[in-house]
Write a structure and sequence with these properties.
Structural class: alpha/beta
Mean pLDDT: 88
Helix content: 40-55%
Number of helices: 8
CATH class: Alpha Beta
Strand order of the largest sheet: 1-7-6-2-5
Radius of gyration: 16 Å
Strand content: 15-25%
Shape: globular
Length: 202
């Protein structure tokens, strides 16, 4: 863990506990060792560091390229283990980067919906997360966020002091049958839907 990541981890952790009364339910399900694909609903800009506070060592995140403007912001996002995603010209680059990290034993956070919810209702999972799950065969950690949208809604720059909770589900391992048969867009979509259902059930 670099010093800037450590600084952010402590800063965000303290803020979430003191400002939002962060509650964690199901911490006993948290997989702490080895490659882990973390999947979660997406409510707010608060979400990535929020989930990052659950772990005492590094994890990797996806971040829009458009956020990395200027040398300072690029340096900060890189130091915080961000994987750039070009939402205007999507390609396989970020997916390949995630799979490579998982194959190297790292921990990566992915939001299956691909964007923040506008109204709190979970959107449909994108097939890309199914592809990542199948190609990496990593342990999958489902997490549901509640309260982050009320604390910082999409489209708003004003923080509200609303309680946030994280609900951690039992880890998921894809079966040999799923790994073998889940090929192509429809197969990856089936896996993505299964992961989204696991999040919604929490």
């Amino acid at each position: 863990m670099t010093w800037i990541y450590w600084f952010g981890w402590n800063l965000f952790g303290s803020a979430y506990r003191s400002l939002f009364g962060l509650k964690v339910i199901g911490r006993e399900h948290l997989v702490r060792d080895g490659a882990v694909l973390i999947v979660s609903n997406h409510e707010s800009f608060l979400d990535p560091p929020l989930i990052g506070t659950l772990y005492r060592d590094d994890m990797y995140y996806l971040a829009r390229k458009s956020l990395m403007k200027g040398a300072v912001l690029k340096w900060i996002y890189k130091a915080w283990n961000s994987i750039p995603v070009d939402q205007e010209r999507p390609d396989m680059t970020s997916l390949k980067a995630i799979i490579k990290l998982l194959n190297s034993g790292e921990r990566v956070l992915v939001f299956p919906e691909g964007e923040r919810s506008l109204d709190g209702v979970m959107g449909k999972a994108q097939p890309g997360v199914g592809l990542i799950a199948v190609k990496s065969n990593a342990v999958i950690q489902p997490i549901r966020i509640r309260g982050a949208r009320e604390a910082l809604p999409r489209g708003s720059g004003r923080i509200r002091f609303n309680q946030i909770s994280l609900h951690i589900g039992p880890p998921i391992r894809l079966t040999e049958d799923e790994l073998t048969k889940s090929k192509g867009k429809h197969g990856y979509q089936d896996v993505a839907d299964r992961l989204m259902a696991a999040i919604e059930a929490l």
